[in-house]
TrEMBL record:
InterPro entries, alphabetized: Metallo-B-lactamas, RibonucZ/Hydroxyglut_hydro
Lineage: Bacteria, Bacillati, Bacillota, Bacilli, Bacillales
Annotated signal sequence range: none
Domain Metallo-beta-lactamase: 74-244
Domain of life: Bacteria
Protein name per its UniProtKB record: MBL fold metallo-hydrolase
PANTHER family the record matches: METALLO-BETA-LACTAMASE FAMILY PROTEIN (AFU_ORTHOLOGUE AFUA_5G12770)
UniProt KW keywords: Hydrolase
Pfam families: Lactamase_B (PF00753)
SMART domains given in the database record: Lactamase_B
Organism, as annotated: Guptibacillus hwajinpoensis
Molecular function terms, GO-annotated: hydrolase activity
Length: 273
């Protein structure tokens, strides 16, 4: 039996005798099929190659975890340490004994929480290694490609993990698209981990919002306005996306002004061309 991992998106599937013909996550408009065709690997095969995970302390209470060389989408997972509770925000495909030990040395993981399906990757492998639950919004349940009793589907607009850690559903990129608000880091000013539900752009004082990033399909104005309104009550000085881009300060204000600019662009008020 194999547990295939899609080389393009990094999603791990459940036990199968043969590789699937296609990856449903890559087959729709928010992702893409590799121009060379559908390709698969397994975690066991990846462990035989030169992959390794790099763990970096970004600030007190926050560590980034990335795979080198870059695999699939190349996203960053974050280990958040908050008042004795450690949560892994988003996930990556690669996992080995060295990573497990390094994370245990940092206090381990108490829960895994996901922003959206593109980062489910090998989430069940991680959950089983650390014996923890996985929190996914029920609106994105159909995108789970490896089922597990460790997955807990939550509903509604927010889920409080602890008094300092709350997941908020914003939708947008995916119906269940979520962000993680952390109150007790960044010197007590708070931070927001967004995956790419809210995307930090090249000018890192700004963010943006998209339905499909690789295929450049925008979100409608009403949805962006709704997303901005949902995070407006939250206080966060810093914002991290899934690709090591950071709004260093005033991030809560940056989201609001970025949403305003986005709406002005869609409505033809920002420029004439």
């Amino acid at each position: 039996m194999k547990r295939p991992i899609c080389i393009t998106c990094g999603t791990q599937y459940g036990d199968m005798e043969v590789y699937p013909e296609t990856c449903p996550i890559c087959k729709e408009e928010r992702q893409y099929v590799n121009p060379d065709g559908q390709e698969w690997t397994t975690l066991i095969d990846m462990q035989k190659k030169q992959f390794q995970n790099q763990i970096i302390e970004e600030e007190k209470g926050l560590y980034s975890i990335t795979t080198a060389p870059t695999f699939a989408i190349g996203q960053t997972a974050y280990l958040v340490q908050s008042d004795g509770f450690n949560v892994l925000w988003d996930c990556i495909s690669y996992l080995d004994e060295a990573t497990i030990q390094a994370v245990k040395d940092l206090g381990g993981i108490d829960a895994i929480a996901l922003s959206h399906p593109h980062y489910y990757s090998s989430q069940v492998e991680w959950a089983e290694a650390f014996h923890v639950p996985i929190y996914i919004h029920e609106d994105d349940a159909k995108w789970v490609m490896r089922e597990s009793e460790r997955i807990e589907f939550w509903n509604g607009e927010s889920l409080e993990l602890t008094p300092h850690l709350t997941i908020h559903r914003l939708g947008g990129h995916f119906l269940g698209g979520a962000v993680l608000h952390v109150k007790d880091v960044s010197g007590g000013k708070g931070l927001l981990l967004t995956g790419d539900i809210i995307q930090v752009v090249a000018d890192q004082e700004w963010v943006s919002f998209m339905y499909s990033y690789p295929n450049l399909i925008p979100l409608p104005a009403r949805k962006v306005k709704e997303m901005a309104q949902k995070v407006k009550p939250l206080k966060f000085d810093r914002l991290y996306n899934a690709f090591h881009r950071i709004v260093e300060s005033g991030a809560d204000e940056a989201v609001q002004r970025s949403a305003t600019r986005y709406l002005q662009a869609l409505e033809g008020e920002l420029f004439h061309t």
